[in-house]
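Can anyone check this?
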Amino acid sequence: MAGTTARSGPASRPDLLPQVAGGRRPTGQLTLAQLRDHVASGRIDTVLLALPDLQGRLKGKRYHARHFVDRVAEGGAEVCAYVLATDIAMTPVDGFELASWQTGYQDLRVIPDLSTVRVLPWMPGTALVLADAVDPDAHLVEVSPRRMLQRQLARIAAQGLQVKTGLESEFVLYRGTYAQAAASGHHGLQPITAENLDYALDHDPGTDRFFRRLQAALSGAGLPVEAIKTEGAAGQVEVTFPYGDALAACDGHLVFKHAVRLMGQRAGMAPTFMAAPVTGTASGLHLHVSVWKDGHPVLAGPDGSLSQPAEQAIAGLLDALPGLAPLYAPNANSYKRSAPNSFAPAHFTWGIDNRTCAVRVVGHGDGLHLEIRLPGADANPYLALAATLASITHGLDHELKPPPPCTGNAYDTTDAPPLPTTLDHALTAFNQHPVAQRAFGTAVVAHYARLGQVEDAAHRFAVTDVDRHRWFTRA
């Protein structure tokens, strides 16, 4: 599908088109040797070295490509340690053990993961490489989101199991640029579509053009999409990616968001991955998770029903995820998504092909898998998936049994715990949660609890438009 889209894409933007057979333009993922060849030929002149930060963004430096392959690729580089110890606005704040005013905001060494080299077609002549942070003793930094997911994958692997993941991401496109939105105080934002175009196939030319260019660009970066569709809210878009390696899925998600933001701005659009950008709109990051052993999926029994490992995994999710919310709902806005009848879950429930539940069992036969519908679009995918896998491991370790599945509207349930309603509520449960402590360790829990406190404080004392609207003339 991606190849067909690329051939029918606009010829006026060759930088967004994947390479065709025999062409010269590099595409997809590269080995270090291939990168060196493209640098030597001048086809790649810039390399972005990026460390995924706490919020799930690419942070790093642009390197001249020759300097990168000669000095950085195998020698590493440095970034200020506050990249892994700061809020969404990159504000230096105290209270983090890793880096603060007390530590002098020292450097942190980052080592390129050379299995992640890929071309970015939306940035001509540019390749991206992800990096892992290490401490002075060359140990991986445990609070790094990428490392946190790696640890949970290792815990499941110790049981002889592997995880495959596909991500389904929603975002909203508004007309105009980020600068224009900021100049208006983010008031009067106009979505690119004025109505519900869920499953529509008759998009306006501008939207169709953006979808084609995005699909072609992602394919050229080695990230072919499974599907792109407009969603139920005005201007809302959903992009789904095929199943694959869990860590690679999260790596790819950050690259995808980078593409959406840059390409959206070039098209005169302002994309947002907020969980609730406006009242009544809820954007999610759904995690589709399958568990395998010896090359075979294990969630379906011989008769197609749920296997015992599947039931234990579901039970672990329902038991542990209530205490891990700051890892998949990281800021105050995250908790405004879970409104009744919003398709965002409001209780910790599970069901068979039931979109009102937090955990949806979907698929058939070998394709049966779990869809975790709790994370919002604002979630860091590494942290959300790490919390999911820690919960599944918890269920397997303790051989837990789930409650009966929800067969009706889960918003009406009275016998399942509700989601936390505020970040402050979520942090109270997270701080001392036994699954969090066991899976991630005291220092990591303290780090993310501090991050949550910073976010909570930023909202708690801010006067909003709602405050003024309700009280200005009535107080």
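Reply from J.R.: I decoded it. Residues 154-196+232-462 form a domain with the Creatine Kinase; Chain A, domain 2 fold (CATH 3.30.590.10).
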